[in-house]
Amino acid sequence: MKKITMTAMATIMALGMTVAAQADIVIGATVSATGPASYLGDPEAKTLEMLTEKLNAEGGINGEKIKLVLYDDNGDPNKARTFATRLVEDDEVVAIIGGTTTGTSMSIIPVAEDAKVPFISLAGAIEIIDPVRKFVFKTPHTDRMACQKIFEDMKKQGITKIGLISGTDGFGASMEAQCKKVVGDYGIEIVAAETYGPQDADMTPQLTNLRGAKGIQAILNPGFGQGPSIVTRNYAQLGIDLPLYQSHGVASDGFIKLAGAKAAEGVRLPGTALIVSDLLKDDDPQKAVVVAYKTDFENKNNAAVSTFGGYAHDAFNILVDAIKRAGSTEPEAIRDAIEQTSGLVGTTGIVTMKPDDHLGLDLSAFRMLEIKDGKWTLIE
């Protein structure tokens, strides 16, 4: 078979066609490799392809190789649902990885639940796993956890009054709601709140309103995509002299590039060990895993590793581990094994699932980060 070039691969994915080799265990994926969330979905797609290739080169799972059926949903929830249905009905997959965004993940959930096929989401909103659904799991920390980690840091800084500027997309709206639910637990008051749309190109009016709010000591931006970068640039342009916190939804070098290193200076957010792998202590239980993934990804793709590719890395390894332990490729047996995952070291943390916890991470899995001189630094 002729080697597929990266250009050809991108064309195939854009057309929604499958990328796979003949094999025994069929795993499905639908991610946003192109479109407005491509900076999330592209590294996810590359990671799944890389890990599949590596596993098959090592002999697969118990001698059976993996067939990866990968679709690009372009960030469109309707396409994601269509591809999920195709994965189940036509491709007969044993499990689905994907749902780059909250919107696409929520559209895949009913398909997976109806078909009784395990689905591991790569999106952040807590609604994906709360309430717990039998066949639905996820790898990123939840937006509620991000709020809690941020508020822990604010409390340490003596911050008691803040403003919110939130995106109105699925992730932004969900995180805003979760932050409002838990903020009182930390003795912090939201004194003003503003929003912006996914297509907005200037948040100066909203930030001006927040700056004028009485007693405000910091501003938090629940959001992902280009919005937080615009907020950060406008923040600097207005000369707002208050701490700016962002969400884990922008924890990548791409955010610093879009916002500009000077504008992003001092921004704080919760992120994963993967972003600061070179700063981890040698005895950190995640160091070997994140360094190995970072090295493999960057050598293969000639591009910086990202948090979002890390979510796909963990989903793939959780699934492979479950199939091995299940000793079966029956979807329900795999589902049961995923739920029994214990002590699996990933890029996002050490995963231990339970029947009432289909994430398996706690706040200790988050690292609080700050941007200094255009680079990520650990502040704890």
UniProtKB/TrEMBL annotation:
Component of an amino-acid transport system. Gene3D superfamilies: 3.40.50.2300. The keyword Transport applies. Keywords: Amino-acid transport, Signal, Transport. This is ABC transporter substrate-binding protein. It comes from Daeguia caeni. Residues 25-360 form the Leucine-binding protein domain. InterPro entries: BCAA_transport, Leu-bd, Leu_Ile_Val-bd, Peripla_BP_I. The lineage of its organism: Bacteria, Pseudomonadati, Pseudomonadota, Alphaproteobacteria, Hyphomicrobiales. Belongs to the leucine-binding protein family. Residues 1-23 form the signal peptide.
